[in-house]
Amino acid sequence: MMLRTEFPIVGLGASAGGIQALEAFFRGMPENPGMAFVVVSHLSASHEHHLLDAIAGHTSLAVMIGVDNQQLEPNCVYLLPRDALMSIGQRRLRVIKRPANLSVRRPVDLFLSALAQDCRDYAAGVVLSGGNSDGTLGIKAIKEYGGLTMAQAADEDGPANSEMPASAIASGWIDFALPASEMGKKLVELGVGLSLPGEAAPDMQQGGDPDGLGASGAKIRELLRDGIGHDSSGYNDQDFMRRVRRRMQIKQLGTVDAYIDHLNQGSQEAIALFRDLSVGITNFFKDAEAFDVLTRLVIPELLQGRGATDTVRVWVPGCATGEEAYSLAILLREHMDTMAVPPRVRLFATDVDDWALLAARAARYPGQSLEGMSRERRDRHFLADGDGYVVNKQLRDMCIFAPHSVVRDPPFARIDLISCRNLLICSDRQVQQQVIPTFHYSLQPNGFLLLGASDDAGEVGSLFKTIERKHRIFQRRTGQTAAPRLAFSSWPLQAASLPSSTHRPGEAVGATLHAAIERQVLTRHAPAHVVINANGDVLYYSNGTGKFLQAEMGIPSHQVLTLARKGLRPDLRALLHEAAETGKSVRREGVAFEDDEGRLQRVSLEVEPLCWQRDTETRYLVLFFQRGMDSEGGAHSPAQAPQDGAARHVEIELLQARERLQSMAEEYEAALEELSSSNEELLSVNEELEASKEELVSLNEELHTVNDELHGKVDELDRCNNDLNVLFDKAAIATLFLDRNLIIRSFTPAIVDVFNILPSDCGRPITDLASRFDLPAFANDIEHVYTDYRPVERRIASPLDGKHYLLRMVPHSGADSSVDGVVVTFIDITDIIKVERRHRLLIADLQRRTRSLFAIVQNVAQSTLGDGDAFKRFDSRLSALERVRGALDVEWRIERRDATDYLLLDWAERGSPTSPDQMNQGRERLEQTLDVVLRGKTRVDFNPDGIACRIEIPLDGKSADVDKDE
């Protein structure tokens, strides 16, 4: 069985909350997707098998732990092993043990970056729930190589932690932000991978050109230019085709015509396509060896001998998001700090991508983009800002970011160093050969040029000398000047309006092209002629052009304007511009010039677009119609002509010079007005940027303050929640929280002693659960709480274990003070009931002893009747009691009524309670005892100074029996 060698590979990155997101992802994955999935997570080693089981429970795909050198197969899921990092090469996993000294873990970035390089447009990156910004740089890498990118959007499945997907979305490189459960279906719909270069759809290979896009591609370039103002003619056709087809795949459009219609509907798709074309990975100090050589060989010479009044000018074309520019600024700043009087440095960083320039001006980068930088350098030039870093103000003030096209716009001048390491690799050879002379023109004598290792620049050797070959560092040769090769028009005519042929300047034109040119010339003209491209390079000479073109002394050049004789250059330049802008044939009659012998000659010039069916490059046919010598001069030179003839020649030349001067003056005035307007706009934008910068700084400070307050609130909430949990656990008070429908909201652990309740019973009615008590009026009592807004209390007892509870129900008020529930508490009062019982026993015992005491008093009184010794002893004791006067006065006597003797006892107490309420319980007990036991009567009077009590007890021996033992 042969394995499929080309199938999509999807890298999934997740961290905190990632298990739930991964379950949702694979739950929504269709059967047999035809892709391999590699899951890279930050989860701890203990979660490895838990993650495997969680994914396997939601998909029919084979799920396994990845091993080193394992060949990936479709419809399989591979997990990152514990304590390891994972990469990929030739579609095989590369598993390495994670170094123990690795301070920051970025496993998602590591794998996605390797996946992008290995699988290119067959790679897909998915960022799910997780903390920090891991995965953002990996997503950028996948986007650079033409892959597909996704990030998790919020739904019921998360993300539980939105930092990772939010960082990826904010980078601008995400194609789809979807809920995790919808990603699988979208991946299968798109198929992720693109066909190989030779497998393009037939409708994209028009005109017999297998590598280009034909008329459709030219139409797309034109729409891109008209929609957002950027020219894409410099991108090579293969890369352009790959980006267009990726956009068609994302929009699920089957034909180029459908995509062109979609482009016509609005500018958003044009912006998206342009961003895909301009995407590039730039890191700080990318290719560290090149920067080391730059620091050693170029920077010292660049700043040597410069003072405070001097300015060093650096240009970084194609700066993308600014990492390259800030890296150079760091090197310059560090060397300037070693100088006593450093010069000023102006670093111009340009790009055609406005979004990338906004990111560069913001100067905020994720932490992982600085991982290759030393800690000392990072702390010196960057300020920590959350999970990222911001370039300090000193470096930001050195850099000026501006939109600029090296192909379309005029170049900068008087530059000391140009660093172009990311631009030429995506450009075709024509653009490369145009850009190198432009750089030569921009640099000052002995200025330096730094190119990328993959850049192809054929003309470097003739204009620059090599300083360091390996890292492509060059220096401008002295004594040579090459004018920049600018197109005749800001928007050169493209293949959509002019058929042309892919041809590189300097190569011989084939026989077929030669025949086509000869047929057109012989059909309409018979003059001398040349064929040039849009840059003015001569591609073909006919016979007889030596009268009109002449090579200058110095460096060989193919530029037609450089070769043309001096008298022809102004008119030829004007005709070339007019032909390029209008796309039509233009002509000028009677242009005068001097030949080699100094004779005045006249020629008619004509420039017309060259029509050739197989062209993919704009070309022009320049025709020279010989009109002979001036009629007044005959065969003689101007010095030998009659005086009036010479004057006429001078007048004609003067008239032509005035016309050209007037045209140049008008163009200069227009350019000056545009420059003035641009300068005013730049000043206005600069002021707005300064104001926005101050607002952003203020907003950032406020955000830090709010964030600190939020952290404090979260900590306080955690403490309160912990205290509440401890209270519920330790207080042992059974509590129920119910809503109006008796649905359980929550409860404390102690409630299990009252109800047979489980944690899963939240949300069920309390009436569905069995109770250990008989609560027939439970629902009615809760209803009374709702209606009367009053607490309800009652005592309940358990027939099983003899426990007693105080049942208390109080209304639960919401945020708006309305009653939205009830709180039911069961307080264990078993010990209180036992104490009450003991208290009643003690009171009964006291009452019994009181009855015995009064019986003894009665017997003593009876025994003291008469004058016996017993009476005297009793009288002396009462007298002794009487001596304790002041707080208490006691008097007693025996009085006979109706043949019955009564003992009268008067009790007067000062400083005692003056209200019946203060002694109600003791008084009642005394009266009850005297009445029941001794058939006595009591009368208590409460006076302002105390209490007066009279007790009358009959002494007839018929009182209740007294316990003989007492």
What does this entry look like structurally?
The longest helix has 89 residues, at 643-731. Helix content is 39%, strand content 22%. It is built from 25 helices and 33 strands. Residues 195-212, 486-511, 632-641, 878-886 and 959-966 have low confidence and may be disordered. It is elongated and about 185 Å long. A hairpin with a 6-residue loop joins strand 27 (792-797) and strand 28 (804-813).
Break the fold down into its secondary structure elements and pairings.
Elements: E1 9-14, H1 18-27, E2 36-41, H2 48-56, E3 62-65, E4 76-79, E5 84-89, E6 92-97, H3 107-119, E7 123-127, H4 136-144, E8 148-152, H5 163-170, E9 176-178, H6 180-190, H7 214-228, H8 237-250, H9 256-264, H10 268-278, H11 288-303, E10 311-317, H12 323-336, E11 344-351, H13 354-362, E12 364-366, H14 375-381, E13 382-385, E14 388-391, H15 393-398, E15 399-403, E16 415-420, H16 429-442, E17 443-451, H17 460-463, E18 464-468, E19 473-476, H18 511-524, E20 528-533, E21 538-541, H19 560-563, H20 569-582, E22 586-594, E23 600-609, E24 619-629, H21 643-731, E25 734-739, E26 744-747, H22 778-788, E27 792-797, E28 804-813, E29 819-828, H23 830-863, H24 869-882, E30 888-897, E31 900-910, H25 920-933, E32 937-943, E33 946-954
Parallel strand pairs: 1-2, 1-7, 2-4, 3-4, 7-8, 8-9, 10-11, 10-16, 11-15, 16-17
Antiparallel strand pairs: 5-6, 12-14, 13-14, 17-19, 18-19, 20-21, 20-24, 22-23, 23-24, 25-26, 25-29, 27-28, 28-29, 30-31, 31-33, 32-33
Helix pairs in contact: 1-6, 3-4, 7-9, 7-10, 8-10, 11-12, 23-25
